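Support case: nicotinamide-adenine-dinucleotide complex. Customer-provided input:
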Amino acid sequence: MTAPQTIGVIGAGTMGNGIAQVCALAGMSVVMLDVDEKRVARGREAIAGGLERLVMKTKLSAAERDAALGRLRGATDYGALGDADVIIEAATEDEALKIKILRQADAVAKEGAIVATNTSSISITKLAAALGRPADFVGLHFFNPVPLMALVEVVRGRQTSDATVEAASALARRVGKTPVVVKDSPGFVVNRLLCPMLNEAVLAYGEGIASARDIDEAMKLGCNHPIGPLALADLIGVDVLLAVMEVFHREFKDPKYRPAPLLKEMVAEGRLGRKSGRGFYTYT
Ligand SMILES: NC(=O)c1ccc[n+]([C@@H]2O[C@H](COP(=O)([O-])OP(=O)(O)OC[C@H]3O[C@@H](n4cnc5c(N)ncnc54)[C@H](O)[C@@H]3O)[C@@H](O)[C@H]2O)c1
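Agent response - structure generated as follows:
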């Protein structure tokens, strides 16, 4: 595939607007689609804010900011994705919804276009089965916040072609990221390793091995982690961590992935971390 000129991004939320921002900054035209004008406008504002911060830090000139914003178009109609060389789905994490969205994208995608998903937990092979051209479908798992995080996991489904994996990896490099190709397996690489570690920290905390602050301090000083596991669980969302552990437990059928009982209690209590003001720590 020749270098893509136009990227379609479905979903203007946290991940979608981040992906749209890095693609526009890298010189590509971007169509960012969401369910209504309000959400598209909110995504656009987030991008404008992100670019403005880069200008303030003198990492970007005002002219470059304006040019990037000029390459960005909003849409609510799937027909607008017809020109896209690559369509990246970054909508809400819901399997039935993603299948519906991907079918709509597949119906308007031009010949040879690649369709990708940013899903964190749904099988790429399973999603591909809903599409007419599974060889052209791939996982492109960006990390949050997209403009800052250097990694993209390129996830190969059972039917993804080598050419699609190569094109997806090239796109990741073009937006300044380092691609790592991984097989389609729950959690891919990063969440497969990270979430059980966070779950273990919750178990240790529940057993009273140390205070939350001391567990976090120990991992920061003893392992050089930039943030402790419990503070990170609060940042990711206690509910999100529980959901990931439940997927691992169900899919691998291995008791080592059993979610910490305290995670369930905290979710039931509404202690979801930063977003609810209370998790392992209290936020004001
Ligand atoms: N947030 C993270 O840290 C993170 C990291 C990596 C991957 N992901 C994945 O990225 C995806 C998006 O997550 P997010 O955090 O950006 O969610 P979000 O809730 O911030 O944004 C999702 C957006 O999708 C839109 N949407 C819903 N239905 C749609 C439809 N039919 N057509 C178009 N848009 C639609 C919503 O209106 C919303 O704006 C999920 O699959 C998630 O698992 C998230």
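The longest strand covers residues 137-142.

Case will auto-close in a few days if no follow-up is received.
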